[in-house]
Design a protein that fits this description.
The protein is an all-alpha fold and about 290 residues long. The chain has a domain of about 200 residues. It contains eleven helices and two strands; from the N terminus they run H-H-H-H-E-E-H-H-H-H-H-H-H. The chain has a two-stranded antiparallel sheet. A hairpin with a 2-residue loop joins strand 1 and strand 2. Helix 1 runs antiparallel to helix 10. The longest helix has about 30 residues. The protein is globular, with a radius of gyration of 19 Å. The relative contact order is 0.20.
Length: about 290
């Protein structure tokens, strides 16, 4: 492999990684703070694309569609958490209820999408501003690919600043460790959980809108994306935000170079990586063996 091909594949893998990170970070944030393994998380990725598509039908503006898709996915997420998931917190069989309810929402939201927008494939074009490309030596890099990478790293920096440098971020981290103690100190823990769920699902919607110009918008896409997201979360460690970033970078590059080197095994390479990680470190690469979380 020459240097040009390597750099090209690396950049491509980085863009895939950033999309995976946006989805998986929301998934792991929900698990880490709300303690819910949200199997319906891919459906919010799907909702983001369709809300953006509808917005663009009215206003023909990608940037407005990006905002609408992200915000609407987050609002729907908060509604689902507030009116449904919150009802099963603290029950003896909470895990089983979570599994059944979030799986039910996969079916409900997918059918809702088909009912409103139909089963036909939709397309969202790239914004004209990002339709071109530029050269890094002999490597041609699409501007839209660079946009995805930059947005991903901006989200990383904003998340770091919020979680580590703000009082609200400290409350979010505290709620992932001991909700009861935080509640006794006068913090509105249920509101924090609802807002975290909304932010996490909004990140899924953002990823859906950003990925839409690279692939068709179709019902069922949420189920496909949740598999790779779960692999990323397992590799990084459940509930670990930075683990989601590491897992996404690993899977993004594995997918990019795997398609080039071993195309016949491209569909199973991510599962092989996950199995290797589980054998070596079952709790994930960046997750401690005991969290102490209640």
């Amino acid at each position: 492999m020459d240097l040009t091909t390597f750099v090209s594949q690396f950049i491509s893998g980085l863009s895939v990684a950033m999309l995976l990170f946006l989805i998986a970070s929301g998934l792991t944030l929900i698990f880490g703070v709300v303690n819910v393994l949200n199997f319906a998380h891919g459906s919010f990725y799907l909702l983001g694309t369709y809300f953006a598509y509808q917005s663009m039908q009215f206003f023909d503006n990608f940037w407005l569609g990006l905002i609408v898709g992200t915000v609407c996915a987050g609002v729907v997420g908060m509604i689902v958490e507030f009116f449904f998931l919150k009802r099963i917190y603290g029950r003896a069989e909470e895990g089983a209820f979570q599994l059944l309810m979030t799986y039910a929402f996969i079916l409900i939201l997918d059918d809702m999408v088909k009912f409103i927008w139909g089963p036909e494939y939709k397309t969202i074009p790239k914004p004209e501003l990002l339709a071109g490309s530029f050269n890094i030596g002999s490597v041609v890099v699409p501007l839209y690919t660079l946009f995805i990478i930059v947005v991903g790293f901006v989200v990383v920096l904003l998340a770091w600043y919020f979680l580590m440098r703000t009082d609200k971020g400290k409350m979010v981290r505290a709620s992932s460790l001991d909700r009861e103690m935080l509640g006794l100190l006068g913090t509105n823990v249920p509101m924090i959980m609802t807002l975290v769920f909304g932010v996490a699902t909004a990140m899924g919607g953002l990823a859906g809108v950003m990925a839409a110009p690279l692939r068709t918008v179709t019902p069922g896409a949420g189920v496909e994306v949740i598999i790779d997201s779960l692999i990323v979360v397992v590799i990084g460690g459940f509930g670990n935000f930075w683990g989601a970033l590491l897992g996404a970078l690993i899977i993004g590059e594995v997918l990019s170079f795997g398609i080039l080197w071993m195309p016949e095994m491209a569909t199973v390479l991510t599962f092989i990586v996950m199995i290797v990680v589980l054998v070596i470190k079952p709790e994930g690469l960046l997750s401690p063996k005991a969290t102490g979380r209640k």
